[in-house]
Amino acid sequence: MPAAPCFCGRFLLLSPVLTIGRINVREVLMKQFSLLFRAPFCLLIPALLTLTFACSDTEESGPITLDESDVVTGSTGGTAGTAGETMMGEITGSPATGEGTISSEGTGTAGDDIIDGEDPNDDLPEDFNQSCEENSDCETGYCLTGPDGKVCTTSCIDWCPEDWTCEAVANFGADITFICVPQFMALCSNCESDSDCKGDRCLEIPEEGKFCSRECNLEEPCPKGYTCKIVDDTTNQCFPITGSCICDEELLGEQKQCIRENSFGICSGNITCSGPGGWSECDAKIPAAEVCDGWDNDCDSEMDENTGGASCEQGNEFGNCLGNMVCFGADGLICSAKVPAIESCDKIDNNCDGTIDEPNAEGCTSYFEDFDKDGVGNSLTELCLCGPNLTNKWTATEGGDCNDFNPNITGGKVEICNNLDDDCDGEVDPEGSIGCVAYYEDVDGDGFGTKGVTKCLCQPNGAWKALVGGDCDDKDSSVFPTAQELCNDVDDNCNGSTDETGATGCEPYLKDADGDGYGVSGLEMCLCKPDDIWNATEAGDCNDKNNKLHPGAIELCDNLDNNCNGFLDEDCDKDNDGYCNMNKEVTGNPNVCPMGGGDCVDFDPSIHPDAKELCDEVDNNCDGAIDEGVQAPCGGCEPVCLMGAGPKDENTFQDNEEALDGAGIDENGNIILDASSINLHMIWISNSGQGSISKLDTTTGNEVARYQLCNDPSRTAVDSQGNAWIACRGDARVVKVALAENECVDKNNDGTIQTSKDNNGNGVIDGNEMLGKDQDECVLFVVQPDGKDGKGRAMGVDKDDHGWVGMWNSKKLYQLDKDTGKTLKEFTLPNNPYGLAIAKDGIIWIAGRGGNQLVRVNPKTGEMNQFNTGSLDPYGITIDINGRIWIGNCCGNHVAFRFDPQTHKWASVSVKNRPRGIAADNKGFVYVANDQSNHVAKIDVNTLKVVGWTDLGAGRFPVGMAVDFDGMVWAINQSSSSATRINPDTMAIMLEKPTGPSPYTYSDMTGFQQKTVVAPFGKYTHTFQGWESGKTKWQQIGFNASTPDNTWIKIRVRTFDDPALKDAAQWTPIWGPFPPALSPINLNEFGQIIGKLLQVEVTLGSDQGATTSPILKSLDIVASKFGF
Asked: What H or E segment, with its residue span, contains residue 1040?
């Protein structure tokens, strides 16, 4: 049946084919009014309802594909308008929205057929949206082509399921009906232009082609799988989310099988739906001719088939080997022929010459012809084979057979005495042949051969002719076995003995077994000379087992006859008191003196070692002492004694560590405070620029000596005797220099002390007045306790005059012996030391410049504490009269710091630029060197006020400070190489004197601190012996002492009988101080003091303001024998 004309985008009536167009409901009603309302909702459906996407000029025999653009749709949200004045009334709105009304009487509700509370989906046919091929397959008779193929649908009035819309469809006879069609059916339909998309856009997707799109907005959004995006910057269009109309969201990532085929074969692969661009190309490889490469090139499931087989060969200098080409996969074709090699004994034709293991093959063995089969072949027939050749007789692996036709003659055979060369060595019947005879060498022809030396020969040969050996001298025919022995120092008969007993010319000797020179009568031997036992020529020994018993021996008291006169122990105990004479040697417990020896008067039985000592001026008990234990301590037998101690008494003061604790003995033998009464008048200044130290007289300022010591000397300290300790920064040396020449050492023993002196008296040491390094004999010792890499930057002297040096690099503190410099103690510090000072209690305080810390060291326990200075670069350090520590700050806040060891609190005083060296006097002041400002500050230690200044003048740069024993203040000027003396009362400059180059030090360079701070008090202990025979009552103590202003002495005592128990004895209360108390002391003030020993403790002390030490000159004790 021919088709009627078609107008795209308009309502079209086909008979019997139904074509759907996209039209407005109002337009349909106006143009087809009479057909639409011929009867209410009457639809004339031909036998076959067909839906199509676009207009067509041809007749089709089957269903036509439905495009969304061909579906009749209504306007959303607007009024359809008036259809005309008919009895059928009006249609308002769109049936697809469910909001319009249709009424045959003018009014009515399009949705009146929907029952409240019911789900419209329940009324859908069972095959709705199910697959179909033609209209008759569907319950409703409607089969249309949707986005995913042909499916069944249903009629509608005002409602369709989600993603479906109610659209007008024209059927045969110009009738129309409304059916549910998929929303956006035309999306991704093929097109050439916008006209193919029924009013929507025809968009091009790269690599895929052109496809229909649709306008979208908030009221008409895109369906699932599409997104609304701007196209050409004009309209919003629905576009596939995947970017592809071919590979939609559901197909994205899917694969389908594909093949590639040619004359070589067929290869399988896949195409993939990968989004933009649609399906990918087939990934199957292209079939190719099979080659040897480890791949199945023609896709026949076989790899590298039929790729080898060709003939080949391998050749080199050893030969040529044949083979075939064999495929080895990825390695390609390889010739199977082996590589020719040198022929070896391995049962293989190595060189491919057709012969296996031929002669001279590698690894062959030498074989020899062996016709007589004795295992040794003819050396001239050697052949190197891989094995024996039995056919040709090459069977022996050893050559050397000199007769290959006699099996008894061959190399290795044993030689016998038969005049034949049995072993083929070229020698007939050699030494050692079977059947040989032992011959001795007989050079002197006396018939005897040399002992122990023989040759086994088949017959005599030269000197080898004696059948008997034993000749001990084959050069003397008179010496041989059986010869007569003579006294001639020769073993004539070769028996191993020379001049044996009874030899011709022997003499008689007596037996002297104990070696005392006397033999036993009747025991003698005739010898050529005496031996160890038979050597005596005098008889009379009564006991030859004891060399102390013989004629002429001294008689002892030992129950023996020592002198062999027939008597025992004569003259041992003449007074018969049971004790032998002390002049007689007593051994054991002889019968003559059962009480032992030691009788000092053997004619008086009342005097012997066990007698009681009496006070009678006789040694009653023979102990070498007269009246011991019974005599009074002061001598004699009187019951009362006066005992004394001191330099003028026989019992001098004891100079040892047990007796002296913080005290010392002066040159007069008196007890003083560590010799601090000695006033020293020298200042020792290190000259860093010269490696020397200058010694200046503090009274005149003149330089009296200069010593070349080390590299970069720095810190100096002075001991109680005025000797100087110097620590060096450049070579780690620590040096001690003697103050007085009589303390120096004559090292070269020339009788003269070689040392530096101001010989011309100009007050300066000139170049020729200073000796070279290590040449001055007043340098007592040089040590390096920290090794060669140390850097001495702290130096001090304790109360025992031992030196303490702090090393910068290693952070070590060493105590050095005052006499040798040997290290006594060693501590590791927590900070780098830059100076040290020693307090009265022995505590060492260190300026820890390395960490801005003040370090406290207990030298007895090694305990250490740190206190942050709160400053930068602590330099000089000193201790004031109150025991507080002062530090020069140098490079930080331009202040001097004071630390209280009791409260651990800091205080500070502002001074001028860069305080360096610092020193304290004994009047309550400290003095600070301010290098950059060339000033010296005087500070009151209690008020923390600067009470005076000294301007040293430009270019001085003072670094060190000191106080001398006259109380004067010294500033050491580094830049001007000078020392300035200042009057502390007026702070006026008294004098300025030159030093060595670049003087530099921060320490106690006069010894003033050591005398006034380190050891201001001490104790002396003296023990007196009472009566030994009984207890002693101690009555009174008197003493002679000097106590200058602000000095004093105190005394206490204790008694004991055993020195080992003295520490448990109790001390009496203290008497004193003296003054104001007066001597003597009544020891019975606190009760009787009784005991064999009396220990007296004297404490010497000084208070603030003291300028010298108290002196104890003597002690006097009154005691009596207890019970008198």
From this structure: strand 1032-1042
